[in-house]
Amino acid sequence: MTTTTLMVISDEELLRTGLTHLLTSEQEFRVLAEVDSGHATDELIRLTPDVVILVADATRPTCLQMLICLRRAAPSARVVVIGRETHHSYVALLLSAGALGYVLAQASPRELFAATRLAKYGRRYIDPKLNDELLALFAHRAELGTKVLSRREEQVFRLLAFGHTLKEIAEQLNVSRKSIETYQSRSRDKLGLRTRADIVRYARETGLYNSGSAQN
Prior knowledge:
By secondary structure, the protein is of the alpha/beta class.
């Protein structure tokens, strides 16, 4: 049987230990490290596991920020997120940021094992308890491919969420308003957003308001 190497990320030691024990009950899985968010990126680069198991509601910074950091450090990283959030927009954003799997915290071990096996081969797994609307949105995003905001798009997105006008953003970033309109359009397309209200809601749900000042 082929071995699948794993890394477990959570800021709660009991969760890390419990997940490690659960995963290693399957002979095919070998946990290389169980780490907190502060050591996750360095350990990912050092160990290059086949799959990363990221606990969404336990990590600091937020799960989305942690996921983006992991993917920037190792673009080929295959990440399965375990979380309690069922809101389609938030989970879709995790997928857009590069998560290959999303398993609800109340799922059975069998579902986590299935998500992990699929992730190893670059295939998606979405918890079957999620509704049809969410599954349809995921399918659409899969057709578009995994997309993460560029640094400039993320910067413009955050400024929009803080209520700045396009003119103010252009002046602050010292670029043309037309360029800002382009960044805004790209970020909305990638994240499936339509209005400023959608942007503000995403910022609240994903912790962008807490990820630094609007100047960063």
